[in-house]
Structures are given as C-alpha cells and as structure tokens.
Automatic annotation (TrEMBL):
Record Pfam families: OTCace, OTCace_N
Positions annotated to bind carbamoyl phosphate: S50, T51, R52, T53, Q77, R101, H128, P129, A130, Q131, C252, L253, R280
Residues reported in the UniProt entry to bind L-ornithine: N157, D216, S220, M221
UniProt family annotation: Belongs to the aspartate/ornithine carbamoyltransferase superfamily. OTCase family.
Annotated protein name in UniProt: Ornithine carbamoyltransferase
EC annotation from Swiss-Prot or TrEMBL: 2.1.3.3
InterPro entries: Asp/Orn_carbamoyltranf_P-bd (IPR006132), Asp/Orn_carbamoylTrfase (IPR006130), Asp/Orn_carbamoylTrfase_sf (IPR036901), Asp_carbamoyltransf_Asp/Orn-bd (IPR006131), Orn/put_carbamltrans (IPR002292), OTCase_ArgI (IPR024904)
Subcellular compartments: Cytoplasm
EC top class named in words: transferase
Length: 293
C-alpha cells in the first residue's frame, strides 16, 4: 500500500491512523518505548527543501527503532539523469519504504509503481497528505470530532489534501479562493463524496461560523515566477483578526507574515500552528507503522 493522497486511506483507516498517532503521542509523553520499526529503514528523497517533513520523518523513524536515509536529489544519480523508475528500483532493494518530496505528482506514481515497497508522499505539486494527518490530529485536539473548518487563499497542494481529508474526518468544509486560483472540480468532487464541502470566493462567507481557519502561502515552491501576479490576486484573502474571529488559526508552515496572515494572528492566542508542527511527528510515525509494520 502507498500513501500518495489522503484518500488512499478509507475513512475508517484514516480514523485508525489518527487513533494510533494519538496513542504514539501519549506513549512518547509517558516515556514508553515504541519500537515497532526496529531494524527497518526509510529512504527519504527530496527534490525541494524541507524542515518539518524531513525532520519529523527522520526523528520518527529513530523513535520507532528504525533508521532514515536522507537523499537530496543532487546527491544521488537522479540529479545526473538516472530515471525515476530506476531510482525507485534501487531504493526498494535496500529500504523498507520510500518517502519522497517531488515537483511532479507523476514522479510519485512512478516511484510507487517501481519501488516494490510502500511510497509515502512528502509533498508534491498536487497533494500533501502527510501534513493533513497532522492537521486532523490537531483538529481532534482543539475542535473535537466535528465542526466547521475554513480554507482561505490558494487552492494548493496542502489545501487539496485538507479539503478531502477534513471531509473524510467528518468536518464541514468552507473554502474561499480567488476565482483564478480555485480548487480543481475533481478535488471538490472527491471531498464532497464524504461530507459537506462549500467552495467559493468570499473569505467572510467561508469563515462565518468556522471553528478553525486554515491558510497557506500564496507563492508555493515552484510558483516563484508568478509571485507579483499572485500577490495582487490574493490581496483580500489575508487572515487577520477580523477574518479569524474566535476560530483557531492553522497553517502548515513555513509562513509569510504580512502576506497570507498577519503576525498578530499567527503569533496570537488562537494560533495552533506549533501544535500542528509537533503533530507532524506523531502522525508520521503512525502512517509509517501502518504501511511498514
Ligand atoms: N509543512 C511542511 O511540509 O513543512 P516543510 O516544508 O518544512 O517540510
Ligand atoms: N504549499 C507549500 C507548502 C510547503 C510545505 C509549497 O508547496 O511550497
């Protein structure tokens, strides 16, 4: 089994992974060893920079008794033109699973088709399901098992996985994006299979009654050439105190204070961004145990 999109899990499997993540979090807090992956190795392939994904997966493997190998694209033959499929074959001969951060989601599909071991998405242009696990664990902790969550801003990789994952987990989802940066119809259809999903272009309407408000950067990795165009298109979608109201504030990080969110909001009392970042560790451990154990 691979974990390339959040709905590679069924809603029941998703709930079970979140239960496991909560249990692993408690075990760590209680100092109880949890070495389900002793002797196992995770190959971690990165085509783009990362702080949280890289460190949470590597530390997670260590805490589970296993080991992680960091492979920057230009440190291996992939950077000199070895095909993705051949890279996958080689990694699968040594490692028990592969986690990859890639530019194109197609490369993840190629890795999954050729590795012969589970492949985990560490972010692609289309999806960031590992982040969504941490986001849903955070929502459980701060909102509870049901409620209304809002996505504001770019309908990007993090947003697409959150839209589907939040609906799978039983939350009502309200989203507002600029018209020219909206969610793909296919993403909205996938999310709507699981629950109430309302996408539009009005941030005030989308945040009305929300228990949590989530945003991400306006210029994702790879979108830098469109920076000026994007900054002007997204003006009006900044999360400030008035838009947030008394909701919890969520962001996958890294953030750009003054662009998608004010410093007062992200550094303010309703922000749960560091809880989300911590929960990456527990959620990543849970999905690794699910796929590799
Ligand atoms: N949220 C997230 O994936 O962060 P990194 O880019 O630091 O891994
Ligand atoms: N949407 C951002 C998320 C980074 C974790 C990007 O793709 O750059």
């Amino acid at each position: 089994m691979h974990f390339l999109t959040i709905d590679d899990l069924t809603p029941e499997e998703l709930a079970s992974v979140l239960d496991d993540a909560a249990a692993l979090k408690q075990a760590q807090a209680d100092g109880i060893p949890h070495t389900a992956l002793a002797g196992r190795t995770l190959a971690m392939l990165f085509e783009k920079p990362s702080t949280r994904t890289r460190v949470s997966f590597e530390v997670g493997m260590t805490q589970l008794g296993g080991h992680a190998v960091f492979l920057g694209k230009d440190d291996i033959q992939l950077g000199r033109g070895e095909p993705v499929a051949d890279t996958a074959c080689a990694l699968g001969l040594y490692a028990d699973a592969v986690m990859a951060r890639v530019g194109s989601h197609d490369d993840l599909e190629t890795l999954a088709a050729n590795a012969g071991v589970p492949v985990v998405n560490g972010l692609s242009d289309a999806a960031h399901p590992a982040q969504t696990l941490a986001d849903l664990l955070t929502l459980r902790e701060v909102v509870g098992d049901s409620g209304t969550v809002a996505w504001i801003g770019d309908a990007n990789n993090v947003g697409a996985s959150f839209l589907v994952g939040a609906a799978m987990a039983g939350y009502d989802v309200q989203a507002a994006t600029p018209a020219e940066y909206g969610f793909a119809a296919e993403t909205v259809e996938r999310a709507s299979e699981y629950g109430s999903v309302d996408v539009g272009h009005d941030p005030e309407a989308a945040t009305a009654g929300a228990d949590a408000v989530y945003t991400d950067v306006w210029v994702s990795m790879g979108d830098e050439a469109e920076r000026e165009k994007r900054l002007s298109a997204f003006e009006g979608f900044r999360v400030d105190d008035a838009l947030l109201g008394d909701a919890a504030f969520m962001h996958c990080l890294p953030a750009h204070r003054g662009e998608e969110v004010t410093a007062g909001v992200i550094d303010g009392p309703n922000s749960v961004v560091w809880r989300q970042a911590e929960n990456r560790l527990h959620a990543q451990k849970a999905v690794l145990v699910e796929l590799v154990d």
